[in-house]
Amino acid sequence: MPRKRKRVKKIKYYKAEFKIPESTKKRLKEFCSKHKTTPNKVFRKALREYLDRNLVYHDHADHMVAANQMSIFDLLEEGSS
After folding, report:
1. Which of 58, 76, 78, 81 could serve as a FRET partner for 15 with CA atoms 20 to 30 Å apart?
2. What is the DSSP letter of 19?
């Protein structure tokens, strides 16, 4: 009996638009023709590299608790006394 194939989750894509000067457009066109790629691929790769390099991960363990906030450990200590 043949195995059932798992469904591949579809990837959502979003359209992004921005303006660049004519000189940058010319440089981009030359770069793309030299490296045999498209402007969209260049933009996606540059954006991915930028986000990987500059993404800051937040540690949830280092959050500060306010002084007036009770803790379950405070209740346990009071109950054992």
Report:
1. 58
2. -
Q: What angle do CA 69, 73, 76 make, to 5 degrees?
A: 120
Residue with tokens 């004519």: 22
pTM, two decimals, is 0.56
Task: Give the other-Cβ count within 10 Å of 32's Cβ.
Answer: 15
Q: pLDDT for 4-17, tens place per residue?
A: 888 899 999 999 89
Asked, for residue 8, whether it belongs to a domain, the answer is no
80 in a structural domain? no
Q: How many domains are contained in the chain?
A: 1
| Inter-residue contact 28 to 45 (CB < 8 Å) | no
Q: Pick the residue with more confidence: 25 or 53?
A: 25
Residues spanned by the domain of 34: 29-55
